[in-house]
């Protein structure tokens, strides 16, 4: 059984695949925060910008089988066009994504992307793996396509990951305020963008990525 908060067709806003059309499948639940505002300050991950509680979002629901979920996601891709791409996110998708669901996505002709905090082992068969470490949570994934570190995090600064996580791309993503409506002025994000920019200028193995979807006002 799979619990999905919401699913929507949009452009990937972050990282090396930014600008690419994708169906986002946002799984419910996370292992680093229970999603309740009153518990945010005490969570391992306390800057999350996402509501992943329950199954009540757009196209959300409970799916009994991998095939049922893959068919539901497939219906959100424009029929007959391009290479279907699904990005599994959350919440923490690796609490639920298994080899059966990856196989069902592949059978539906999807390429499978994953956005994870890296604290849980990844099943085989993922086509694009993005790891985004959080605070002092132990990362168990040591190889990925992209490492996308939200910056700054005092307990997870970039130096900690060089030589520890092998990636083809190393990105810094400026930390945004957790609960501002999209496109609202975000002075915290502005200041973090300057800090991330300065870090990339001083450490050119890191690249800057921005949350493009928030800038242009899409999901
Ligand atoms: C909501 S998370 C879900 C996937 C997974 N749990 C993770 O943390 O990677 C999706 C992406 O948003 C990023 N993110 C979450 N809150 C953010 C914030 N306040 N500012 C910038 N990026 C944020 C995460 O680091 C991750 O790359
Ligand atoms: N457009 C868009 N791109 C994204 N990249 C990562 C996202 C996420 O929340 O995992 C996200 C998202 O929510 N929307
Ligand atoms: S950013 Fe990811 S790890 Fe952190 S609380 Fe949100 S869903 Fe969980
Ligand atoms: Mg997001």
UniProtKB/TrEMBL annotation:
Keyword terms, alphabetized: 4Fe-4S, Iron, Iron-sulfur, Lyase, Magnesium, Metal-binding, Queuosine biosynthesis, S-adenosyl-L-methionine
Binding site for Mg(2+): 50
Binding site for substrate: 11-13, 26, 89
A Pfam family matched in the record: Radical_SAM
Residues the entry annotates as binding [4Fe-4S] cluster: 30, 45, 48
Enzyme class: lyase
This protein's record includes keyword Iron: yes
GO BP annotations, alphabetical order: tRNA queuosine(34) biosynthetic process
Pathway involvement of the protein, from the record: Purine metabolism; 7-cyano-7-deazaguanine biosynthesis
Reaction(s) the record says it catalyses: 6-carboxy-5,6,7,8-tetrahydropterin + H(+) = 7-carboxy-7-carbaguanine + NH4(+)
Manner of cofactor binding, per the entry note: Binds 1 [4Fe-4S] cluster. The cluster is coordinated with 3 cysteines and an exchangeable S-adenosyl-L-methionine.
Subunit structure: Homodimer.
Chain's role: Catalyzes the complex heterocyclic radical-mediated conversion of 6-carboxy-5,6,7,8-tetrahydropterin (CPH4) to 7-carboxy-7-deazaguanine (CDG), a step common to the biosynthetic pathways of all 7-deazapurine-containing compounds.
Family: Belongs to the radical SAM superfamily. 7-carboxy-7-deazaguanine synthase family.
Protein name, entry field: 7-carboxy-7-deazaguanine synthase
Organism: Marinobacter litoralis
């Amino acid at each position: 059984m799979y619990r999905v908060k919401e699913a929507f067709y949009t452009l990937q806003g972050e990282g090396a695949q930014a600008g690419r059309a994708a169906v986002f499948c946002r799984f419910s639940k996370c292992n680093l925060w229970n999603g309740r505002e009153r518990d945010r300050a005490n969570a391992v991950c306390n800057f999350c910008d996402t509501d992943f509680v329950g199954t009540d979002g757009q196209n959300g629901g409970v799916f009994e089988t991998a095939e049922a979920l893959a068919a539901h996601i497939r219906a959100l891709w424009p029929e007959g066009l391009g290479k279907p791409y699904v990005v599994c996110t959350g919440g923490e998708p690796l609490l639920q994504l298994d080899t059966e669901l990856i196989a069902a996505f592949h059978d539906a002709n999807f390429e499978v992307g994953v956005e994870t905090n890296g604290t849980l082992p990844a099943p085989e068969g993922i086509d694009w793996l993005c790891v985004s470490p959080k605070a002092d949570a132990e990362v168990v994934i040591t190889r990925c396509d992209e490492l996308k570190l939200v910056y700054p995090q005092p307990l997870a600064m970039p130096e900690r990951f060089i030589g520890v996580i092998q990636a083809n791309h190393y990105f810094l993503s400026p930390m945004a305020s957790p609960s501002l409506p999209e496109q609202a002025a975000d002075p915290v994000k502005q200041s973090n963008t300057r800090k991330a920019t300065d870090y990339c200028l001083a450490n050119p193995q890191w690249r800057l990525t921005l949350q493009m979807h928030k800038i242009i006002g899409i999901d």
